[in-house]
Amino acid sequence: YPTERIRNFSIIAHVDHGKSTLADRLLELTGTIKRGHGQPQYLDKLQVERERGITVKAQTATMFHKYNFHGTEISEGQDQPSFLLNLIDTPGHVDFSYEVSRSLAACQGALLVVDAAQGVQAQTVANFYLAFESNLTIIPVINKIDQPTADPDRVKAQLKSMFDLDPSDALLTSAKTGQGLEQVLPAVIERIPPPPGKSGSPLRMLLLDSYYDEYKGVICHVAVVDGMLHKGDKISSVGTGQAYEVFDVGIMHPELTPTGVLHTGQVGYVVSGMRSTKEACIGDTLYHSRSVVEPLPGFKPAKHMVFSGVYPADGSDFEALNHAIERLTCNDASVSVTKESSTALGLGFRCGFLGLLHMDVFHQRLEQEYGAHVISTVPTVPYIFEYSDGSKVQVQNPAALPSNPKQRVTACWEPTVTATIIIPSEYVGPVITLCSERRGQQLEYSFVDRYQESDLVKLDVLLNGQSVDAMATIVHNLKAQRVGRELVEKLKKFIDRQMFEITIQAAIGSKVIARETISAMRKNVLAKCYGGDVSRKRKLLEKQKEGKKRMKRIGSVDIPQEAFHELLKVS
Ligand code: GTP
């Protein structure tokens, strides 16, 4: 596949807005997995993901899709060109945003999925900015339009006001009913640029992820940024300086599918002689041994917010736990691990996590995937203590703090965050209470839809020189002329000719900006009935009365109700 026919994209969204379901549908649509494969959320492979219904690990799948790019001419008998699409599913929860930013490093575009009823939520905002900072092309997808409470127009307005995304770019879908899904892959191919790498340059691969497989050993997920990789190649790691031979190389389609080669811009897997996932440092650059390359930027190290002790439930299981943690941290590089010991629990580990959910998921995975039974200690944030001898230490374990009063603590610091909380106005009160319960200080408070100075004018409508207050509008000066013109034209259409001439004017102050006249007409409903029978006359008079009821007399001019309705449409 030449790079022009490769697209690497990711799906980002707030929790539960339908990323994994949409990913499933795209895999089905391209025949990558069978429809009704009986396994919902194909990319949520881990047991913990299925049980909790959340995505924890970013997964990649390669799909092939035939598509006529930009409507290019295709001669008869010739097939539509096939595109290779790498879809990277990402977690939605804030604790796993580390996984999101890693996935985005291999992408040029992202589908920003927003629930049509819930609208933009906290993680929509956070994930949008992650994608935006990575210079990705963003395709807004308003999903779940099948719901009775779906309000796609409101979501479009949010996308415009919060992210300056063009509402006409938004795709409307239901991953449940399949509505609108046919537009998704064409939009991916048309709007997202191909990967920018150079196929003629020396090989540079970004190590995206790794895990340990009982049979194959360490499996690395890589993005080939420049050059090409073949089975049998000798590769080296910038991080460790170690060299390996490539035993197997291929794509995730969606299971590991050997291809023998990976081209520039492709995302795939590599099995080399790595013995432990410790050697496979996520964010590392791999290159052809003996070539000289500039390392790729890599990833920002994870910032650990919560620490807790992890001990084997049975002290003698320390080695088994050590092994399990080693394996698992290779798959989840955002956990920090140091050995520690406790008088009560024996040998164990102090682990740092990105948040409480991350910690919970780590414990659950240890148990489910490695059969390790653990006792974990109360989580704590890292504090800094200064002792009277002037020394300063970071304390991640309460036990490390001396109870000895001689070594007096002179000062202590706790971590804080500067958070921007975006919420609907009805929740402001409870959220402020919640923040103050956690000793939060309010630094600034503002409305997203803030007021801005504007050049506004009052546009009056005058009928026979008399201004009609109910028809006055406030408009921007630049639009006044057009709106004035439309107003008087509309009114002319809806006001019937009357016994006298009517002038309709739109004016700003004393300046008339548009004018129309309706010429006089003698209107006599009975005119046709001279000599006619009386009951017919009465009927007509009744009808006229009826018509009058729906009229509003302004000054001497009768205005039908529809005229007022029509005026609302002018803006
Ligand atoms: P995380 O993986 O936890 O980040 O969630 P997610 O964004 O992947 O959401 P997921 O695909 O798991 O969908 C959440 C729920 O919404 C599931 O119960 C889906 O069945 C449902 N859902 C997804 N798409 C649609 C849709 O178009 N319409 C309706 N009505 N429900 C949908």
Q: Can you give a write-up of this model?
A:
The chain is 24% helix and 29% strand. The protein has 571 residues and is α+β, with helices and mostly antiparallel strands. The strands form seven sheets. It has a six-stranded mixed β-sheet, with helices on both faces. α7 crosses α8 and α10 (477-494) packs antiparallel against α12 (561-568). The longest helix has 18 residues, at 477-494. The structure holds guanosine-5'-triphosphate (GTP).
Features:
single chain, 571 residues, alpha+beta, six-stranded antiparallel beta barrel, 24% helix, extended, binds guanosine-5'-triphosphate
Main beta sheet: 6 strands, mixed
The chain-level structural class is: alpha+beta
Task: State the separation between the terminal residues, measured CA to CA.
Answer: 51 Å
Q: Please, what is the average pLDDT?
A: 83
* Low-pLDDT stretches: none
Ions, cofactors and other ligands present here are:
guanosine-5'-triphosphate
Question: Radius of gyration from the CA trace?
Answer: 34 Å
Secondary structure tally: strands: 29
Tell me the fraction of residues in β-strands, as a range.
25-35%
What spatial order of strands do you see in the largest sheet? 2-3-1-4-5-6
